[in-house]
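Q: Given only this backbone (328 positions), what sequence would you predict?
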């Protein structure tokens, strides 16, 4: 029986083919690893959380954002349409799709988008109601002025209380309308003492029951700004300080407004002895008030007015309750 023999040439060719197959396999393996690494990097680079799961719902691939939201992953459902899911005070948009035996879930944090949408809706509603309220409030204001001239002296304080309440409502209406329309600045040079005089009158008209000591800057200077807007800004802070003192257990209080000109900016610092501020994180959040009687727009508008004057507003961390107000 004859036995097939492999020649030296055939053996060399076989070895050569084996090396070639091995090299092609190594190149294919390297290419696959490179492709897998690229996919993982792309998935990691995406701004949303990504999960890819197999037919047994075991995670096949995920990015770091997905790992942070592993508790959210347990709540996901595979649906044909996109849907929203609330989790730990945040809103997420959930997308899902399939490819062969794999399922992919994508979650996007839309909390800020939802907040802006809600603010826009609330702003539109508030502006509508403010327009509706403006006419009857105007009538009440006019009638109370007429009534004050005709009532007996003993009833004048009652009419004045009506006027103070109407004044507060008018401030809320004006703030709401300004918030919905946006701040428009009309700058002119004016004297600080002129504005300070109006602020003192406004505080007296605002009304309060306790003995409050006011201290204003004792030097005059010029400001290039919108007089009416800056009056709104400062009266908001002064009225907030008055409200804080009214809620304090002491029978009297003080409000101090200091001034410095530094770094080409007018810098004001307002202190008061009233109650402490709660929920500091919500100070400049529209429609979220840190006061019982607030509407949540006062400080928001103050910040917008200051920024419109190339400045800003901030709560300073020191021993006293102090706000910094900066105007260029």
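A: Predicted residues:
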């Amino acid at each position: 029986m004859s036995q097939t023999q492999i020649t030296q040439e055939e053996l060399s060719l076989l070895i050569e083919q084996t090396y070639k197959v091995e090299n092609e396999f190594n190149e294919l393996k390297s290419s696959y690893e490179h492709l897998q690494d690229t996919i993982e990097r792309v998935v990691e680079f995406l701004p949303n959380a990504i999960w890819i799961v197999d037919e047994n719902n075991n995670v096949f691939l995920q990015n770091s954002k997905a790992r942070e939201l592993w508790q959210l992953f347990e709540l996901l459902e595979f649906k044909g349409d996109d849907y929203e899911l609330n989790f730990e005070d945040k809103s997420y948009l959930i997308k899902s799709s399939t490819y062969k035996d794999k399922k992919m879930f994508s979650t996007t944090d839309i909390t800020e988008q939802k907040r802006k949408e809600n603010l826009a809706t609330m702003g539109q509603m508030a502006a509508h109601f403010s327009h509706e309220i403006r006419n009857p409030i105007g009538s009440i204001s006019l009638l109370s002025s007429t009534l004050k001239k005709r009532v007996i002296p003993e009833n004048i304080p009652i009419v004045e209380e009506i006027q103070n309440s109407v004044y507060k409502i008018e401030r809320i209406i004006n703030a709401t309308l300004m918030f919905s329309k946006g701040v428009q600045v009309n700058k002119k040079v004016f004297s600080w003492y002129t504005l300070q005089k109006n602020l003192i009158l406004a505080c007296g008209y605002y009304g309060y029951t306790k003995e409050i000591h006011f201290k204003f800057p004792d030097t005059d200077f010029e400001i290039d700004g919108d007089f009416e807007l800056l009056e709104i800004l400062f009266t908001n802070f002064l009225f907030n300080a008055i409200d804080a003192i009214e809620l304090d257990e002491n029978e009297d209080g003080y409000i101090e407004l200091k001034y410095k000109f530094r770094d080409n900016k007018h810098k004001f610092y307002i202190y008061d002895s009233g109650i402490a501020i709660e929920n500091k994180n919500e100070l400049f959040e529209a429609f979220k008030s840190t006061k019982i009687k607030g509407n949540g727009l006062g400080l928001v508008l103050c910040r917008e007015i200051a920024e419109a004057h190339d400045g800003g507003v901030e709560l300073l961390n020191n021993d006293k309750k102090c706000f910094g107000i900066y105007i260029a």
